[in-house]
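U., I forgot to send this yesterday:
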Amino acid sequence: MEADDFAAAQPARSRFAWCVTGSGHYLQESLALARRLPRLDLFLSDAAEEVLPMYGIRIDELRSRFGPGLRLVRDKTASGVPVGMLYDDVYHTVVVAPATSNTVAKCVAGISDTLPTNMFAQAGKLGIPEIVFACDTEPVVVTRAPHDWVTLRPRRIELDNVERLRAFENCAVVASPDELEAALTRRLHDLALAWNTSSS
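Result:
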């Protein structure tokens, strides 16, 4: 189904747009939350397509993991064509989770050269609420690499960028899976929606 046909078939602002970047930080936990949301589409950056298999998540298995209602959108156009669905009133919420420090820096600087950063920028211009799960939020971050756990010490610039992002309108910045779940719960409440209870 082409993007225009897909948009025409959707009730106004009826779906979550969940953007995945090239971060492995709580990636499995983030996607587990995404699976529980009603009416969700996944937007993958090129970096996400590289990283997902490193964490045992095959791109061709995402639809079976999420179910038949999932629309999987990949970063295959130079001009970010899929972002146009934001203009067609398909999405009520844009989530970027997990978000690399690179993605956060680009969002703060107004750079939109990947699918997630383009979605973030355009959603901001349209007043669509956004939730960003930033990775580098503490002086010491323990995170899962593909084959082991590692300890990272984010630089001042990464920590400062997270604080700058917190000042953006209509943007909730979270720093853990628990905070992400809480922010999503609040958003579902605002929309009079509920978490999916099905395990399929």
